[in-house]
Amino acid sequence: MDAFQDHYPENVAHCYGCGRLNDHGHQIKTVWEGDETVTRFTPEPYHTSVPGFVYGGLIASLIDCHSTGSAAAAMYRAEGRDLDSLPPFRFVTGSLHVDFLKPTPIDGPIELRGRITEVKGRKVVVETAVLAAGVLTARGNVVAIQMPEDFGTAKPG
Ligand SMILES: CCCCCCCCCCCCCC(=O)SCCNC(=O)CCNC(=O)[C@H](O)C(C)(C)COP(=O)(O)OP(=O)(O)OC[C@H]1O[C@@H](n2cnc3c(N)ncnc32)[C@H](O)[C@@H]1OP(=O)(O)O
């Protein structure tokens, strides 16, 4: 099955976390499983924090891009639109909160399971459970905001 990220327009497909065109990035892939969004990622040995465990910044990064992708997919779903239909929905991170509940073992795949808890205007809130071998090790809460037309061009105020 195609992942959400396979449908990102080329000009937003370079993100370090989720861009399919970023050779150095994580290139995560997220799909619907019922009402949950799911990303599976296998960490490399160099993603270490304490030996044997995953670096927390990687977990935050995975939650971040899993959530922005989930937000876009949720908005398409809410409008009954195909992921390739135009104009495309693009979401950036307004807020990223992570609770690290337990060390995450590095020796196997990590699963992120997201639930959409709010869709309002340009905002989508995604809650994500991070599991390693079925054990909940972290929880994320992301407020994703539809990218403004002038993103990156507004002058600092
Ligand atoms: C399938 C195809 C999909 C394509 C997708 C490709 C994506 C690829 C990209 C991948 C990216 C990967 C990920 C990355 O790395 S994204 C890179 C990291 N993120 C950024 O650089 C974002 C920088 N910030 C901004 O540009 C602006 O501040 C944004 C756009 C976020 C909001 O500024 P804007 O002026 O536009 O917003 P608004 O004031 O009209 O508010 C609108 C609503 O939002 C609510 N709000 C705002 N901020 C926050 C906050 N911090 N916490 C909680 N809520 C917040 C606000 O209360 C309001 O809600 P409500 O009052 O209506 O309820």
From TrEMBL:
It is found in: Cell projection, Ruffle membrane; Cytoplasm; Membrane. Its EC number is 3.1.2.2. It is a peripheral membrane protein. It comes from the Bacteria. InterPro entries: HotDog_dom_sf, THEM4/THEM5_acyl-CoA_thioest, Thioestr_dom. The keyword Cell membrane applies. It catalyses: octanoyl-CoA + H2O = octanoate + CoA + H(+); (9Z)-octadecenoyl-CoA + H2O = (9Z)-octadecenoate + CoA + H(+); hexadecanoyl-CoA + H2O = hexadecanoate + CoA + H(+); dodecanoyl-CoA + H2O = dodecanoate + CoA + H(+). Keywords: Apoptosis, Cell membrane, Cell projection, Cytoplasm, Fatty acid metabolism, Hydrolase, Lipid metabolism, Membrane, Transit peptide. SUPFAM superfamilies: Thioesterase/thiol ester dehydrase-isomerase. Pfam families: 4HBT. Residues 52-131 form the Thioesterase domain. GO terms for molecular function: thiolester hydrolase activity. One of its GO terms (cellular component) is cytoplasm. One of its GO terms (biological process) is fatty acid metabolic process. It is an enzyme of class 3 (hydrolase). Belongs to the THEM4/THEM5 thioesterase family. This is Acyl-coenzyme A thioesterase THEM4. It comes from Blastochloris tepida. The lineage of its organism: Bacteria, Pseudomonadati, Pseudomonadota, Alphaproteobacteria, Hyphomicrobiales.
